[in-house]
Predict the 3D structure of the following.
Amino acid sequence: MIAVLRQDATQEQIESLCDWFREKGLDVHISRGKYQTIIGLIGDTSRIDTDLLCGLSIVESATRVSEPYKSANRKFHPEDTVVQVSDTVSIGGGHFALIAGPCSVENEEQILTVARAVQRGGAKILRGGAFKPRTSPYDFQGLGEAGIRMLTEAGRATGMPVITEIMSASQLDLFADVDIIQVGARNMQNFDLLKELGRCGKPILIKRGLANTIKELLMSAEYVMSGGCQDVILCERGIRTFETYTRNTLDLSCVAVLRERTHLPVVVDPSHATGASRLVPPMARAAAAAGADGIMIEVHNDPAAALCDGAQALTPDQFAAVAADVQAVRRALKMERDEDR
Ligand code: PEP
Ligand code: MN
């Protein structure tokens, strides 16, 4: 339930209303805008009489929010959330970031070579998997702890923040130097993991599950946010449909829907969505036009020799061309901020 307060509501009146809500067992989320204060009520609001609330002198309106996600809901957090990834990189609220790097970290030289190349091409954040969720247990599983070390070293060498995937809460100690922790599509509904990540104090990027609805993605964000973390980034990476010409089906409408429903930044991953390097550039351009706050692209210095997902990896030159296209799209649509020009 959301209560919009009258402009003349005093601090004392607001506090006493909030105390009354708390006495009823509800958590209170206060959003102070320039002109209006909005109270979001979290918990079982069935005992609150909306008419009674509207009758109070300081309440302008009270509405039940039917959506079960509260913290992620734009209705009572109208401004875009800007996730501060590092001193120099932010995502959301007009701040756009290209995230690029290999599917998996393979060795020191590979990750450093790719890191330097994608940075030259326009990437702001370096990706690289160390714990890989593979369908077959016989496929390359990632370098684990050593992979994280190589990734963070490449990040330090280039000055780029890094993102990598966690598969289990037991790995959390290894992520101390990681800037954004990624929850992969297969773990989107690993609720124990999400709860743990909500308490870890780092930005979390959640990828949409292969067969999950947008609402379920938002509920996963809610799990992380209910633990205290407000820095959540959502990622559309394609969903499974009857289509076989692409690895998954990129649901770009998800970007527009999320923009309406939530204040959280939205990133698109055209690499896993299409599974084919030739399809990545057009889908990256489309994602930029749809309003994504970031695009995550897999890049390998030698795609044919990649240990994982080589078919969808761009070469550094191809990445630089896509980055330029994406910038052109954003400029044409007047989405660029002055600092990005
Ligand atoms: C990845 O980004 O490395 C990955 C495994 O993606 P997804 O979870 O979307 O399959
Ligand atoms: Mn991959």
The chain has ten helices and 14 strands. The first strand starts at residue 2 and ends at 5.
